[in-house]
């Protein structure tokens, strides 16, 4: 997808999920021809030996699994979220484990992943389920700038991994403003679904031209977005969502969707922020 020299950064803490995230990050760095930084943020000077050991063990496994990657191990002192956010400004990807405590009070990756994904300057991948080397890239779509950013990232990942892409737009009746006491006739929901599917296909047409080798499946689901995305992504290698955007269909608020899938998806989740608008 890119040959940028900015690194892939993975936060580790000595736990098994963090090591799994590091191995996923190493494989991704190899595909991107990028260096990998294995980072431990130590908030307790008395745990320096543990921090150094955690960084070295994770980095060593990455070198064995992906020998072509330039792996740098670092131990820094500070607050884990603040440090990862600072690193994200000069990284092409930040990778975290979904759970795990390796002995540092603040390095509970399950709790920091949401904060980092919400505010990072680059895409953030939270590795759930150990990471899969097969399956499609699944992306949640609405009409927001965050969704456009997610689509760009998802198509790039699908092309890089030679994987298919599944674009999912979820919708619910409540999003159209109807209540049980409305006296107006209800729409034909099948027609609504067809129109949404057509709109989604039109939205993806430009991406097909840019990535003609990526086989794409378009799905519209009459369901809550978190339920729809986690269901479709059961066998995915990656689920991609945008963050902080409301599109043309109310209810597809990707800020809340990103939070939901980070806690419930069975595969790695990439959270991609919308580009910041100039003031």
Description:
- By secondary structure, the chain is of the alpha/beta class.
- The protein has 2 domains: 120 residues, 3-Layer(aba) Sandwich (Rossmann fold); 137 residues, HUPs (Rossmann fold), CATH 3.40.50.
- It is built from 8 helices and 10 strands.
- Strands 3-2-1-4-5-10-9-6-7-8 form a 10-stranded mixed sheet, with helices on both faces.
- Helix 8 links the parallel strand 9 and strand 10.
- Helix 1 packs across helix 2, helix 3 packs parallel to helix 4 and helix 7 packs across helix 8.
- About 9% of the residues have low confidence.
- InterPro entries: Rossmann-like_a/b/a_fold (IPR014729), Universal_stress_UspA (IPR006015), UspA (IPR006016).
List the main descriptive attributes of the protein structure presented here.
single chain; 279 residues; alpha/beta; Rossmann fold; 2 domains; 10-stranded mixed β-sheet; 8 helices; 20% strand; elongated; Universal_stress_UspA; UspA; Nucleotide-binding universal stress protein, UspA family; Rossmann-like_a/b/a_fold
